[in-house]
Amino acid sequence: MRWLVCPDSFKDCLPAAAVAAALAGGLLAGDASAEVRCLPLADGGEGTVAALL
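The structure corresponding to this sequence follows.
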């Protein structure tokens, strides 16, 4: 199965890239053959610059 993980940050807790990595890890733990691609997003507020880089 192929997954596209596109989270925003968890304000004052985790940046979007860390959320994406955690979700991807969970998906791969459940199905090691899954293809997971991470694309951190932002809504224009906190974390936008990091998501664009």
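The chain has one domain: 2-52.
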